[in-house]
Design goal:
Chains A, B: Keywords: Membrane, Transmembrane, Transmembrane helix. Chains A, B: It is found in: Membrane. Chains A, B: Its main location: membrane. 2 copies of one chain form a homodimer. By secondary structure, the first copy, chain A, is mainly alpha-helical. In chain A, strand 8, helix 26 and strand 9 form a beta-alpha-beta unit. Helix content of chain A is 64%, strand content 5%. Chain A has 2 domains: 424 residues, no CATH class; 208 residues, Transcription Regulator spoIIAA. In chain A, helix 9 runs antiparallel to helix 16, helix 10 runs antiparallel to helix 19 and helix 21 crosses helix 22. Chain A has a 6-stranded mixed beta sheet with strand order 6-5-7-8-9-10.
Chain lengths: 711, 711
């Protein structure tokens, strides 16, 4: 099976044919066949051209093909279950977004319907999401703070907050930021920028959601304890809020705290039971719905609102509201938040969508997802929804109850519609503390992510750093600015990872053409007279200087020293020559006087000079014959990289050491060409396709040299 | 010379010994010998331990060894020349820094002396630098604007600026920001953070200095035209200033403009002459000094100040001033500017220093340079200097006039001292327009850098992008914020470059063990039944998804489709089985009625099933036997990368395609190990040291399979 080992000359010949004019010599034949192949595979992987209509309106593609008999029952059960879960979650997340609960219900209705039409993921449950909600809450509280809505009550001589006006303003802010984030998503989708999500690596997303979860917890403490801490915004606001909460703890409303604790404990127990009996029940028990119903009944029966001053949800208008244009005057002050929202919303949705697409064997189109989410948000915002994404917990409910397509989502929207039209107003007596408890209990999944830290510590310390830094930045700088800082940091880690590469000298694995780092393997042998050098990373501006230093250190040849020694020797030689000339003159004069005398001194000087020259020769023969740079890990070359290689080539060349490059990728060779690396002196003959070829070349020329000297 | 080609089994055996337990099996012997070697080379490349004293106070090392006879004359001539150049430059750059000219003279004295003691570069001329000066100017004008120093003149009924108080305040601001930047440099030097400069790649530095040059030009227009535009700060301030200057052009002071034009034209002509006659004169003519002297004489003789209202330099106090502590209250508002100054100053100095060190064969210690500059700035600031770096033009003067060591710098400081003590006050009548003209003419070097754009366009488009974006960001966001944004952008380009790699299928160069991309070479042949895949870049979070997609496209195997087809086939088979079972029941019932009849229908069904199964088999045999991933360009693996490889391994494995990894660096193997890539199913046997080994392995197992089926 094996091809016979070729001698160097033949190999070299083949390679010369191949490697030198890489771009020019491409065979059109091969090219077309390859591109045809690629096109074909592209064609089969996604619908193109005539399917453009279907790709922008996927509903019309898959709904006529909907396998009714197989999926209908599962989707129905799943849709109702998700709708039931969305009722308490929607109200609870509305608290997070600092708007009245009914807007959380709207947000669980309109966007879901729109996603049903445009979305390509069959399994994710689009709707309210804790992280997005808390981000909106921070915007709406910043732009419509309590302090702007104080009214003086003449009878009690106290100023109170005009909550109705305030909430209306907050809804406007939330709708505006949602509208804008939707427009951003739409634009990104239309220019096919779906790839931006690739900057959200997994450690980053998990660290970010954990950091956001901490924000969620802190924002809910006021409802849990029934206190009203001051509102802070900007960096470090979380810490100020926590301090304020601690300061206000003595003023806790005991009734509210009791409700919170009872609900939290009840929910945890019920959820545990749910997990235990998962297999026995076909559908998980909607514990949150029960909690809401029981709490509402208790609150109404015992009149908790007036007796214990427990804050309740309050008026829930029944029915739907006509669409309203967002307030454009707000746009300038929310542009940053809107962008952060659009990226986070998309990032979460697409990563969940892809996970399940891979699991169930279909494809999610990232740009279409952007468009779908963008339309959901921007159209939803007209109906005063706040920004949505998809939630992991609801998606799990949707899948576990048998949901197989987007139809489940549409059915859950229908459930929401019924609730909005008929049942919503029944929940007016529900204590807000119960909603806060639902939020807190739902966060356990995100907080579990803290176990990532020991796991990442074991597997990849840099990724752990990304996780931890992202979490801290998110907590300290708030979710919007924190996201930008985290993405910047995670990009920085790419620089870190390639900035401190491992530099190695390579040696030959005996009797093979394989070269490996001498420090890692005990059987490899360095080739005498050759330095084979490799960096583990790309050579670019951030590590170019280190590359030169490492090469000098490992090879034991310090260019500065080599050159300065050369210069000194030359200078000395020049001086000596001058002296000689002077002496010769003197001698001549002396000779004129004493012609026969021989000068012993001059002899001595000559001897000294000879020793010096010998010395110089000796150090020269210490030097290796050639340096072979293994450039296989080089991904690209920037101008600094080309310059570095040129300097190495020039400096070592001047010191009499040949520099050969091996294993260059085509793009590297192109960069070298464009960067004027090659000239009359330095030709492409210094490029070798493998380290072994370069070694053989060196050994061959050495042999020839020796033969030449022999004959 | 060549080792005989080894058969696969031998090679594999050798590699098994070597590759599997890379970390554990390291021979201590090899390790120590290597580390000893490195230590040795480290030792010879820089003085250590006992030389600690010398490395912090290099003066005491090199001054006793100063070759007086060789260098003294050159250094003396060079020192006087540089001192003469520094006089007009110092005064001019003081204008840029928005402080009275004498402080520019101080800045050309104290810091130079301190650098003489602590610096390690022998050739750079430390002192005032245009970019640094304009940065300081923007800070001092921001914190001490004209509007803060208006006084009401009761007699003229006009408000005028109290320039004396204003300038005193500006000097304080400049000294404070200089002190702080010096402290930053000192701290960075002490924690050995000299490497931060590696983030300043060459295209970035050149783009940055070009952008800064534009700031310098704009800041000097008011002196050139004799107008007083409003002061703007923050982003886009340059554009506002230009608009304001254009608006004020009709109010130009004609006298000032004439002086400016005459000086600029004169300087340009003189400089051209200087370049032409460079070889004839041993020392370049100090044209700027002549310009200053002539202008002062003319101004004094014709009383330009009162006759034509031309602004002159004004009072120059003679002698030195006692040190003053910087105003600590200013520190909070200048911290960002100070950091930018420290980075820029260091970046410029070290890049120039390194260039000349390489040229003249010695080494510049980057951390010691940071300390030297830090001390120069912080101690200088106590004497009310403004931040210094080194200037290219002065350095060229220093070298071309024969300067060989830091002594030249020290002598130039002595020249400055004489000027400060005796001659300075003579220049009080010098028009500021002349200084502005000197600055503008000196900028031609920086503006010449615009020719980088076509050159970089040809050699490296990404680096051109870095250059252009840096320049624009610097112009738009001002030098401080612009620097930060540019560094961030230049890091982003590393992501760009690796984010869109080239994906290729590799084929064998006939009769060799070399594998090359099939689309680049016309002689390579794809190995039938094998897919050899390579990405030109590292596999990490920003391109992991694309890697999977590209692999699917190039190999023609869409994992989603494969899996879904498999699932569908299975589902159909299940359904069929159910039907069969039903039919069997029916049959049984039928048989009860009509025992003898044979069912043709059932026969047909069976046939159909067989065809389907055959079909399934056929598509399976279409699949390649194995996928070989060439990971040689992978520099590191993050968790996303490991996960991606694991998914590829799992998904293709499930579809019956073997996945083999080849050419992994040790760090990649370590990441795979730590990331739990290997388990009982996926062992290290899938790692191959070359692509060829993997190919041989596949072919061997294929042969064995065939043999097994034959016998």
């Amino acid at each position: 099976m094996e091809s016979p080992r070729l001698r160097y000359s033949v190999r070299r010949q083949v390679l010369n044919e191949l490697s030198v004019d890489t771009v020019a010599e491409k065979s059109e034949e091969v090219k077309t066949s390859v591109s045809a192949k690629i096109k074909e595979s592209l064609k089969c992987s996604r619908p193109k051209a005539k399917n453009c209509f279907f790709s922008t309106l996927p509903l019309f593609y898959w709904l006529p093909r909907y396998p009714f008999r197989e999926n209908a029952l599962g989707d129905l059960v799943s849709g109702i279950s998700v709708g039931i879960v969305q009722l308490p979650q929607g109200m609870a997340y509305a608290l997070l977004a600092a708007v009245p609960p009914v807007f959380g219900l709207y947000s669980s209705f309109y966007p879901v319907l729109i996603y049903f039409i445009f979305g390509t993921s069959r399994h994710i449950s689009v709707g309210t999401y804790a992280v997005m909600s808390v981000m909106i809450g921070s915007v709406s509280e910043r732009l419509a703070p309590d302090s702007d809505f104080m009214i003086w009550n003449a009878t009690t001589n106290e100023s109170t907050v005009d909550t109705v006006t305030r909430d209306m303003q907050r809804v406007k802010v939330a709708a505006a930021v949602t509208f804008m984030s939707g427009i951003f998503q739409l634009l990104l989708g239309l220019v096919q920028f779906g790839f931006v999500v690739t900057y959200l690596s997994e450690p980053l997303v998990r660290g970010y959601t954990t950091g956001a979860a901490i924000h969620v917890i802190v924002s809910q403490l006021k409802y849990t304890f029934g206190i009203s801490p001051d509102r802070y915004s900007g960096p470090l606001s979380l810490i100020y809020t926590v301090l304020d909460v601690c300061y206000l703890l003595p003023t806790t409303n005991v009734g509210t705290l009791v409700v919170s604790i009872v609900t939290i404990v009840g929910l945890i127990i019920a959820k545990e039971l749910n997990t235990c009996f998962m297999r026995k029940f076909p559908i998980p028990i909607p514990v949150e719905l029960f909690a809401v119903i029981i709490a509402t009944l208790v609150s109404w029966r015992f009149d908790l609102k007036t007796k214990y001053e427990i804050e309740v949800v309050g008026q829930i208008p029944s029915g739907l509201q006509p669409p309203v244009l967002p307030e454009f005057s707000l746009f300038a002050s929310i542009i940053g938040d809107a962008f952060a929202l659009s990226v986070v919303g998309y990032g979460i949705a697409i990563s969940l969508g892809r996970t399940f697409a891979l699991k169930y064997g279909y494809k999610v189109d990232s740009n279409q997802e952007l468009i779908a989410l963008g339309l959901s948000n921007s159209i939803g915002a007209l109906f005063q929804c706040f920004a949505i994404s998809c939630s992991m917990s609801r998606t799990m409910v949707q899948i576990s109850t048998g949901g197989k397509t987007q139809v489940a989502g549409a059915l859950s929207a229908v459930v929401m519609l019924i609730i909005l039209l008929k049942i919503g107003e029944l929940f007016e007596e529900l204590p807000k503390a119960v909603l806060a408890a639902i939020i807190l209990v739902n966060l356990h999944g995100m907080l579990k992510q803290f176990t990532d830290i020991p796991q990442l510590w074991r597997t990849n310390k840099v990724d752990m750093l990304v996780w931890v830094v992202t979490m801290i930045l998110t907590v300290v700088l708030n979710p919007d600015l924190g996201l930008a800082a985290s993405i910047a940091f995670s990009m920085l880690t790419v620089i870190f990872r390639t900035q401190l590469p491992k530099y190695s000298l390579l040696g030959q694995v005996p009797d093979t053409d394989i070269y490996r780092p001498v420090e890692d393997y005990n059987q490899v042998k360095e080739i005498p007279g050759l330095v084979i050098f490799r960096s583990s990373a790309t050579l670019y501006y951030a590590n170019a200087e280190m590359y030169v230093d490492a090469l000098a250190e490992r090879s034991g040849m310090d260019i500065a020293k080599l050159l300065s020694r050369k210069k000194k020797l030359e200078a000395k030689r020049l001086r000596k020559e001058k002296k000689e000339a002077k002496k010769a003159k003197k001698e001549a004069k002396k000779r004129e006087k004493q012609v026969e005398e021989t000068s012993e001194e001059s002899d001595h000087e000559e001897k000294f000079e000879i020793t010096m020259e010998e010395n110089a020769h000796e150090t020269d023969s210490d030097l290796p014959k050639a340096i072979i740079l293994d450039l296989s890990p080089v991904n690209f070359l920037d101008t600094v990289g080309v310059k570095t290689l040129r300097n190495i080539q020039k400096d070592y060349g001047e010191a009499g050491v040949q520099v050969l490059l091996s294993c260059c990728q085509n793009c590297v060779v192109e960069s070298l060409e464009k960067g004027d690396f090659f000239n009359e002196k330095v030709t492409k003959a210094i490029l070798f396709s493998t380290v072994h070829d370069a070694v053989l070349y060196c050994q061959k020329t050495e042999d020839e040299d020796m033969e030449a000297t022999h004959f």
